[in-house]
Write a structure and sequence with these properties.
Length: 174
């Protein structure tokens, strides 16, 4: 079933989600509705998406819904201040993925879409630290590669260098 998903990233992401948060569950997925929202729903999740608000300016949006978990798949690298959003989340569980910093590739920046740019290119320890400082307890992590079918030095490195980092964390009780 997973090999029918549109990408290796989606397959790994749904496998990780199912492992750490079995369906059914209600999820607030940070970011606008997208193809992965539909994949989560097909696997038994109820998904509420944010509406494209600037989470740097309006981090309190994450408090509008009572949900079992918040998901953020490739969201935090776009924010100037992900600490504020992470601190504002009241849900007891967080499942997030980020693209990892690759020493052989520059930070991603779309020239045409101001929202499609990475302010942060995290290393795994940096994202872990961010979660810990914003009151999250990391329970499980996973990494995977993102090979591309091209010829060259960087495509070879992509076959062996992890590109994505997934984290399941639970909110610390204060």
């Amino acid at each position: 079933m997973y090999n029918q998903l549109p990408s290796k990233r989606y397959a790994h992401t749904i496998e990780f989600l199912l492992k750490v948060l079995p369906s059914p569950a209600t999820i607030l997925d940070l970011g606008i509705r997208n193809p992965f929202s539909e994949i989560m729903e097909k696997h038994g999740y109820t998904v509420i998406n944010t509406n494209g608000e600037d989470l740097d300016l309006l981090p309190e949006i994450v408090k509008e819904h009572k949900v079992d978990a918040v998901t953020a798949f490739e969201i935090f690298e776009h924010l100037l201040a992900p600490f504020n959003v992470l601190s504002a989340i009241e849900s007891p569980k967080l499942i997030a993925t980020i693209p990892l910093n690759l020493w052989f590739a520059k930070a991603y920046q779309s020239k045409t879409d101001k929202w499609d740019r990475h302010y942060h290119e995290f290393e795994d320890w940096q994202f872990d630290w961010l979660l810990e400082k914003s009151n999250w307890n990391i329970k499980e992590t996973e990494k995977w590669t993102s090979p591309i079918n091209q010829i060259g030095f960087r495509p070879i490195l992509r076959k062996y260098t992890p590109r994505y980092y997934a984290v399941y964390a639970e909110k610390n009780v204060r």
